Amino acid sequence: MSKAKIPQNLQTRKSTLDEIDARILSALNSDARLSISELARLVGMSPPSVSDRIRRLEAAGVIRGFTVDVDTRAIGYQIRAIVRIRPLPGKLHLVERLIQERPEFIECDKITGDDPFLARLAVHSIEQMDDVLETLSEHAVTSTAVVKGTSVKKRLPPL
Amino acid sequence: MSKAKIPQNLQTRKSTLDEIDARILSALNSDARLSISELARLVGMSPPSVSDRIRRLEAAGVIRGFTVDVDTRAIGYQIRAIVRIRPLPGKLHLVERLIQERPEFIECDKITGDDPFLARLAVHSIEQMDDVLETLSEHAVTSTAVVKGTSVKKRLPPL
DNA sequence: GTTGAAAATAGCACGAA
DNA sequence: TTCGTGCTATTTTCAAC
């Protein structure tokens, strides 16, 4: 008689990165356009293996995609700001839609606490910032903080 | 007499993207690993031109780099949180250093307002979150909001 | 910006551990 | 399963226009 196949816990399989996966992720995090061959050299493997691993990381949901890091100031958006947004009673979904429809909001999280939304804004000028906030003013209370600089650039937690 | 050469404003030159640059940036934003040839097809140009444009966008500081979008939850960091941090008098720089040294802080902006820092945290558990905040507790006042979800995924403002 | 040729690379099928 | 090798098609890069 043959032994029955025991399926591994999905969560565990997905979230377990070995040393090599970690090196690949970290290299891709520094430069997502590295060629497969260069990655292969960096981690000491053959190109097809690296290619496979990347595909697996994507399939497991670890890699959500590859993107370009654009400096918004270099394209004319001189001001970045963080906006805490507290919709008036009954206006939660309306406000969420308004945020999504305003392309100056370049990021928005739903969070716990008094203010349900925390959004990031990129604008050309104070006037434009005011204009954006104005569209929310009858439906939500906002508090805005201008970004002066960066202490920690977006990075990966320890792998 | 010949007309004198009038140098263009640097700022203007750098920040002015034409239609094609915009298409390239937007395509790279969706998938930073698109091949040059594929990009060339998308924008209707030859590969060397596209290659040049990307190099120029990097040189101009518009493109800061290419990175991978990793789902922190898929690698075991089940909790993300936003932390507002107000250092006690005289402890601004100490606190900034503490934030930078803690790899669980995966992002931190310096902002205007009562709380000088706004940081993003990724942790495995509430216990780990508490541990991280504990390291700041004697030097700063913090308020923490857990991220429940995303209303707007990171996106580019209009080009 | 384009073209064309040389070098590097990616993708695939296959076999090995 | 996961990894490596060898082949072919594609891609990148550089020079010249």
TrEMBL record, chains A, B:
It comes from the Bacteria. Residues 17-78 form the HTH asnC-type domain. InterPro entries: ArsR-like_HTH, AsnC-type_HTH_dom, Dimeric_a/b-barrel, Tscrpt_reg_AsnC-like, Tscrpt_reg_AsnC/Lrp_C, Tscrpt_reg_HTH_AsnC-type_CS, WH-like_DNA-bd_sf, WH_DNA-bd_sf. This is Lrp/AsnC family transcriptional regulator. The keyword S-adenosyl-L-methionine does not apply. Keywords: DNA-binding, Transcription, Transcription regulation. Gene3D superfamilies: 3.30.70.920, Winged helix-like DNA-binding domain superfamily/Winged helix DNA-binding domain (1.10.10.10). SUPFAM superfamilies: Dimeric alpha+beta barrel, Winged helix' DNA-binding domain.
